[in-house]
Amino acid sequence: MSSKELRPINIDEPRWDQNTYIGRAKFYFATVNPRNIFYSSKSLDEAKNVIDTYRKTRELPAGVSVEQLYRLKDIYDSAFHPETGQKITPIGRMSAQVPMNMLITGCMMTFYRTNPAVVFWQWVNQSFNAVVNYSNRSGAANVTQTQLGVAYACATTGAVVTALGTKSLIQGRSLLARFVPFFGVVAANCVNIPDHEISRIARRDLRVYREQYSFGEV
């Protein structure tokens, strides 16, 4: 059967049933699959070209099967912003979350005995979070460089101060000392997330939806 005889596929709809847990798990795993970060920029651009072409023509390109089309869509979704269409920096992609967090968390839990090590790895962690938050921000969010800088500085300061303070309080207790990175990250998130979102809430930029209907604005 030729590609023209095939029923058009809506590749912007998940191929798995999103009303089931398994369907949702398969959908998100396909996007956050760590293997996706190893595709070259050329491969990502080729995937984008195929997807863009199919959206316009609704016809499978020569030599591309339905399964291959879906796989190219997974690769495309993993690397390009869903609203702006811009290519996301590799460490800011969702497919980089598992390996990057494993690396950073492992280092924070290993190098916690000296103050310079605590400061360095808390800074690395918050820098990584800042890249992820910026890369995956809403396309409609007009976040200024000042807002980003304030959020980053507050989160990093909160993490470092809390981690060092906790470290000094539990000095000599080797078991409790392993929780120093945890308390630092908790403190940073308590500052970072509200600081990133408060401006959107204040500008009433946050839309709430119920199914396909707009439910209102916050």
UniProtKB/TrEMBL annotation:
GO biological process: serine import into mitochondrion
Membrane topology, as annotated: Multi-pass membrane protein
InterPro entries associated with the record: Mtc
GO molecular function list: monoatomic ion transmembrane transporter activity
Keywords: Amino-acid transport, Membrane, Mitochondrion, Transmembrane, Transmembrane helix, Transport
Family note: Belongs to the sideroflexin family.
Name by which UniProt lists this protein: Sideroflexin
Organism expressing this protein natively: Bemisia tabaci
